Amino acid sequence: MENSDGRSADCVRVAVNIRPLITSELLLGCTDCISVVPGEPQVQIGTHTFTYDYVYGSTGLSSSMIYDDCVAPLVDALFNGYNATVLAYGQTGSGKTYTMGTNYNGEGTSGGVIPRVLESIFERVKETKDSMEFLIRVSFIEIFKEEVFDLLDPNTSRGDATSATKPVVLGRVPIQIRESVNGGITLSGVTEPEVKTKEEMASYLSSGSLSRATGSTNMNSQSSRSHAIFTITMEQKNGDDILCAKLHLVDLAGSERAKRTRAGGMRLKEGIHINKGLLALGNVISALGDEKKRKEGGHVPYRDSKLTRLLQDSLGGNSKTVMIACVSPADNNIEETLNTLKYANRARNIQNKAIINRDPAAAQTQEMRNQIEQLQAELLFYRGEGVGPFEELQILKHKTSLLEASNAELQQELKRRRVSCESLQKRALEAQVERDQLIMKIEAIQNGKSLDKIDSNSNQDYNLVKAYVSKIQYLEGELRRLKTSNTTNSRHFGNCVDSEDDEPLSSDSHAKAMDLPDESEDDEKELEHSSLQEQMDKELKELDKKLEQKEAEMKLYNNSDASILRHHYERKLLEMEQEKKILQQEIEQLKYNLANISSNSDDGAEKIKQDYLQKLNALEMQVAELKRKQEDQAMLLKQKQRSDEAAKRLYDEIQRIKAQKVQWSCR
Ligand SMILES: Nc1ncnc2c1ncn2[C@@H]1O[C@H](COP(=O)(O)OP(=O)(O)OP(=O)(O)O)[C@@H](O)[C@H]1O
Question: Can you give the pTM of this predicted structure?
Fold first, then answer.
């Protein structure tokens, strides 16, 4: 099968992610050595031009699109029973960990792909869990100095996700790679806990990442010294059909040259092992990506390293694979960047053969069941016990299966609608709570309370308002119920009254009148009805009071104070934006000064450079803090808009209830 770009759907997809120049590179006076051809997935470096499936960063596509373009299709594939791999490759400090989000700790939003994978998997599980059983497990391993270690092994775990400091290394026992009879690669005894929520999965990722070997090199203060593979295994059971597939998320250690990283001692030894694994990976990519070698059926050296053995299925095997080549644009990295781009270019030629991983026993059972059905039909036909010719039987069977399929689809649709209905109800409740909370805030402001004090009380208020709104919803429900029962009673009572009307009775109504109970029964019914009426009048009055109260609140809310609050938020946002702009201008100015100092060899230049560097750092932190505050303000503003909408809906609802009530009272 071919894609619109003419490449086979099973080819390894390759994306290049160019990170921006980082402060340390700017301090060295580095400039961009790589450019992206506008509108094309093409990069130019020196005299070379390379084409990929996607190019992000440095004015190519925005790197925030990596997940949607490259990774979301792999999550789809996982749910369809295909193995999938995302592989981040590149020199040390080129942004692999940043791109993958391997250090995600479950809090906030990291730009990396892993948090989005977690989010998306559990959203889809939630959507389909009524018709499907899921079993999700995770494993997290690292290859450190050519040994495979289990990062989730509770016996050797070096800390938990909440620990702020890096835990101490305990003696770890490497795990063995095994090859199963059908050639599949397994890790004997690897810890594979079952996970049921996104948070649980994130906590395993986070505790494993803490245990991962990192160290400081000259090129990256937090350099990953090992190759890490986080694997999500998903088993889906639908009746007898079982699909079992794996998604590998691979964050490789950076390729590096000892001279550049100024590594010595332990770091040097680590580097040698890292490079050995990456060299083997390069050879595998060359063997698979070189058309000539592939046609000649040349040997693929998977066995040369643990890394290549573990990635055997991902490169040239049963997997849908995306490789994200991460590069730095700095001209002092040009040699490594060129190398990465060359490998990435070659990797585009790798052909995989992904197949749906159906449980063999379940697949066989299904096949046998079909066979039995077929044979039974044939038997009926030959015995002459069939209702008609064999073909007719086949048509009927086909029709039945079509009807069954459509039935299943309809049931699915029904379930989906139910779920969405529930979630809409929940959202309506939340919106009402928010609205009421805002009204309370406005009141508090009017009463002269400070914003800080209001915020500190808001949690307490939230629960109160929630309880209050649920109560109102309950009462509204009760009222509806009573209205219905009253309508029924009124009809019945109306019938009785009709029979006493002066108007002549039709023969039909006359017949009905004959069926009427005797007078004492009538009295009883009337009494019962009037007591019911009385009770309902009481409830109605109460509801009237509530409606009035709500309307008064709405009026209060709709008056100019609400717009004061909105203006307050908008003004704050604007102020922050201006402050951010000023800070960014200062940063630009500092960077410019720094660039000038870098080319200046004055004696005092180094001191000024250090001062600038410190100031730059402080300013960058200030900008980050401002950004966070700005996001908070924007969220508040959004919340406010949502509450306005909810208030409007509520107001409409009140009007509707009132209209209904008037109608009802007139009956
Ligand atoms: N797209 C980006 N935007 C801004 N900063 C980035 C980006 N990518 C990476 N960085 C920064 O570059 C530095 C190195 O990134 P990272 O640690 O992800 O590199 P790495 O390739 O994983 O390195 P190593 O192989 O040594 O572990 C970090 O400070 C990170 O914050």
Answer: 0.56
